[in-house]
Each structure stands twice: as structure tokens, then as C-alpha cells.
Specification:
This protein is an alpha+beta fold. Helices cover 32% and strands 29% of the residues. Keywords: Transferase.
Amino acid sequence: MMPDVLALLGDSATLARRPAFHIEPADAAAVRAYHALRTEVFVHEQGLFEGHDLDDRDDEPRTVVLVARDREGTVIGGVRLGPATAEDIGWWLGGRLVVHPACRGRVGPALVRAACAHAENAGVLRFEATVQARNEGLFTRLGWDRVRPVTVADTPHVLMRYPIGRIAALARATKSDLGPLLSGLTGVPGFVGDDGVPVPGSDVVAACDAILPSMVERDPDWAGWCSVLVNVNDLAAMGAEPVGLLDALGARDASFASRVLGGLRRASQAYGVPVLGGHTQLGVPASLAVTALGRADSPVPGGGGRPGQRVRLTADLGGRWRPGYAGRQWDSTTSRRTPELRAMLTAVARARPAAAKDVSMAGIAGTLGMLAEASGCGAVLDVAAVPRPRGASAGDWLTCFPGYAMLTTGPHELDAGPAVSAECGELVARRGVALRWPDGEQTQAIAAGVTGLGTS
């Protein structure tokens, strides 16, 4: 309709600037046109198949088809993509990239880029495609990596993999500057980079976290709740019993401060951890930091792991994405009763694993990298074995901030009340974090250390 309107208005300049084609998800009619184009190219032109090239993936309801349309709306190309396994664990396959013979050149690369973007937006962490050997150069130029040669329809093909750097990018953004910044400034031997720190000469364990100012401004009640949540989880990771909290709040006025303190007060009551004191300043930009104090005779280190130890994730899968933070913050705690919250907080202290780390803003994979780095080794994470809530993609879940999620190592069981616990990997002698998939393949998530703080 828009070109017709522009023509009626005499806007020839805008008409001339319209792109030669655009890419969109296919409706039923476009899927039929895409299939017809595949028959034209793969059956009649190239002779790869007899009669048709349709297969089970075309009948799979989760398969997504993206098509390219020219200015007249004609389908001139397309590509399909979708999950590789019965349960979508973040491994997708692309394929059947086709372009009309008269339109080859720009359309094919654009379709490949669109497929990559769609996969990443869907939370995919492993994206592969089997391409004809003669098209390997195109995919290489678009940033894909060669995996191995394969044969399809008696024709040489190459399995290519698109490198998705979501986990590594999050780790860099949240943690990579810590080593250079904090060198020589903090740390107790054996607990460098831990969630909290044992106070020398005592059984006191202290933890401190600040909430992002933008989050305080945007959602003050949630910020207040989270300021308690993150601190008591930090103590829990060290097997410490929380004793009390100190808060430091900056707010533009009393009304805004009351909203932050309302969330903090509710969390303090829900967890049964009192606010002992603190500081409140009005007439200033929003800021919030909380310090938590706990007790532990023998704190559990975050760097106590060793190669060969199994990795366990214990996570509360209840709840939902926090409104306004879909894919980034999982809220399982605001709906829990105090006994459930306390059961989760005391799980590490009761199990006494070799190492424990509360999942931080670096996400599950990034936090595992921090645990491994502090332990002087690396880790492998079995993606399909990671406990994950329904409705959360693998990419979102491995990179989000969960309400309660604890990574532990060593021979132990972790009973954390409503939380689900499962072995899902192991520590290894090499550095970094690899994702292991059901077919035995491993893909790199983090190449080396996360924080640069080194071995604990």
C-alpha cells in the first residue's frame, strides 16, 4: 500500500530510494513461494534432489522461514532455521538458503545476516548450517567458522558455525576490568574474588553490593528488594549465617526514598535479616549500596575447586521475568515464604561443597568462569543438563541474573528447599569455559579468565 500512496502523492524521490528488497518472517503464502523457489533451484537448476527437496524440518512447527521480497512483493529468496533438538536447548540449525537466479549477489548475504540476528534474538548459543562447498567463502566472509566437510545429496558440503559471543561479551562488560583495578587493594588469602570476605581474626563474614543507579531510578521498590537479595545470597555462597544489614541510600526526596526503603524493608522481613543501621541522604541522585554481615566458623571458598570435580547448579526456577527486565532478571524470590528463602540460604552451609559461588551479573556461564579462574582451572558446562525454567531461552538463562542460583563443586548433595539442583558439568585442567552439547561437540563460551584476579 505504501508505494501506491507515495505514487499518488507524487513522491518519486522516496520511491526511488526504497531498497531493492526487504527481509521478513514468512506467512503461509510466502512459505509456499519459498518452497517453490527451492524446487526451481535445488531440483531443476542444480539437480541435487529428485522431485522436491522437502524434509522433516519443513514440517517442524518450530522452524522459522525468513524470506526476501522485492519491491513488488515477490519472494526472491529465503532461508529456514530452528532448533536442532526435541527440546530447545539453544542449538539451532540453518539451511536451505536459496535465491532466485536473477537476484543473486546481495540477497544471499542479507538473508544469512538476518538468520544470524534472528537466532541470537531467540537466545541461541550454537548456530550452524550445512552449506555447499562452493559457498564456503561467502559464509567465511560473513564471519562463520568451518567445522568439517560433510556430504549432502552426494554433493560436497561444509558444516559451518556462526560464533555467538553473548556469554563472553557479558563477562567482559561486567567483570574483565576487576583484576587491573583491584590489584593489591583487596583480598584475604584463599578468598580472592569471593562473594564476601572473612574478617581476619573473627568468624565474621562481610559482603557489600551496590545497585545500578538506573535500576534504582527505574524501579525503586525492586531495587530495594534486590539490595537485600544479592547480599544474603553472597553470604549464603560462603556458608555464612546472615546477622544484619547496613544500607547507604541516596534519593532526590523523601517520597522516592520511601519507595526504595519499602522494598528493602519487605526483603529484610521476608529473609529474616534485620537492618542494623545505615545512612540516608536526600536531595542527591539515586544510589543504593548495602553491606551484609554474617557468621561462619569455616567459610566455603569460591576458589576451592579442582580439575575433575563435578559442577552442580542449584537454582530456584519458580517465578517469572521481572516486568521490564525480560531476559535479564528472573524474579523467583518475591513470591517465596520465609521458610523457603531460609532453606535456600542455608543450603551451602549444610552441604559444605569444595567451592561455591552465587550467580552474579556475569550470568551462570560467566560465574562458572569466575569459580574456575579462582580455582586455577577451567570448566565445561553441559547445556542440556542445566536446570532452566520454562519460557526462558538458553541464551537468556545462562546470561541473566537469577533470583537464587548457586554453583558448587565437589562430591555433595545440595538440598535448597524449592530450588532445583543438578550436576551439569565439571572442572577441567585447561582455562576458560566451554559449552558441551548432546552430540558431544564443545563450543567456546569464555576463552580464559573472567576477572583477571587470578587464582584464589
